[in-house]
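I am still getting used to backbone structure tokens and would like to learn alongside you. Label the sequence line and the structure token line clearly, so we can match residues to local backbone shapes. Would you write everything just below, so we can both look at the same thing?
***
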Amino acid sequence: MIDTYDVIVIGAGPAGENAAGRCADGGLSVAVVERELVGGECSYWGCIPSKVLLRPGDVLAAARRVPGAAPAVTGGVDAEATLAHRDELTSNWDDTGALPWLEERSIELVRGTARMSGEKVVDADMSDGSMRRLTARLAVVVATGTGAAMPPVPGLVDARPWDNRSVTATKDIPARFLVLGGGAIGLEMAQAMRRLGSSEVTVIEAAPRLLIREEPFAGDEVREALEADGITVRVGVGLTGVRRDGDGPVTAMLADGSELIGDELLVAIGRRPATGDLGLEHVGLEPGQSIDVDDQLRATGVPGGWLYAVGDCNGRALLTHMGKYQARIAADVILGRDAAAVADHAIVPRVTFTDPQVCAVGLTEEQAREEAGIDVRTVRHPTGDVAGASVTADEFRGTSQLVIDAARRTIVGATFVGPGVQELLHSATVAIAGEVTLDRLWHAVPSFPTVSEVWLRLLETAERQLEITLGLAS
């Protein structure tokens, strides 16, 4: 059976859905090939369930920081109710509710495993053993995302470690929980499991600090909070071996000779592109690798410009919102519009949803200093040193920082650390994307009393430390 469409999208996660929807809204015929669930990793095993697991502990911790409310917090998180809410928001891993969105746009869903066999040709292996061949008139869009990376540690695979899917879909809270990896996924799930009832939680990170891709102070402040929660943090030490006997506990052997015992071990050291079985070799690309793309999201090295890759599989910015952004641009290019990706070079917003949260966009100070032509200046201010923070919580801790290009008088990076500071991030994203000058930002007046007033404190610090006069002249 051969079917022809204007566009074929491989993968129905957030990036694939957005590419398909925008092409369909533009009048093109579209087919989407998906072997698992429409909605993808984020909806069922990533962003949504992980934040559901974190939320109850965040709420109780926030209440404990408010005088007058703290005495009302007499118990802990109801793990059973939390897991039930997780099941509800993942629709019990059933994508039936996601299908009407595709149907309304006349997007055909092909449930099968896609493999490219030539130029604009996609073969879908169906669950009944048959094969359906699809051809595209205009474009094929790869949106297959990533899977969890597993390091080649002796005994690790045989020990049946958890990955992000295992931990977000768990039916039970392990009493003793080991986490390999000090990035966002590892730290979020370490804190979630601790607050859901794990009695012992240990984070193992080979790098010298947590959140190695963010500002050093961010990882330090999160570590302090995790340890205050009773979580053990081991940095600067690698995992050398793992063993597990049957269904018993898992033992992690570390490079310093110590051993840790847990009921479960989560491996959260990074992601690998899910491109190994896509038939990339038939279009001149290397299977199992990220698909390099240009700013129109076209795969480089593929003649004719018909192949696109959006989202995590291209390796540019492994975040759901960035995949959706890229998908809209790719669709516009396919529709014949003038579009190019800008944000995924140096304006990538990101949030680690620990308590405190780490919210950042743009360049870190170190990255900015490595960039040619940036006159780097950095200013910091305690996030909690504003009236709005005092109203929000007792002992509101965290640090806010701007990385400034003094020559252009613009912000190139921003980091906010503190409880619930996620909503501060978009203002920084707008400032960087719009290249708004410090002089103009002086007129963006934060409401009182809100935590956003930290923006004013940062601008005042810039004026004092950098000898930048921020007058009120328009």
Remarks:
- The chain has three domains: 2-39+95-147+272-345, 157-269, 356-466.
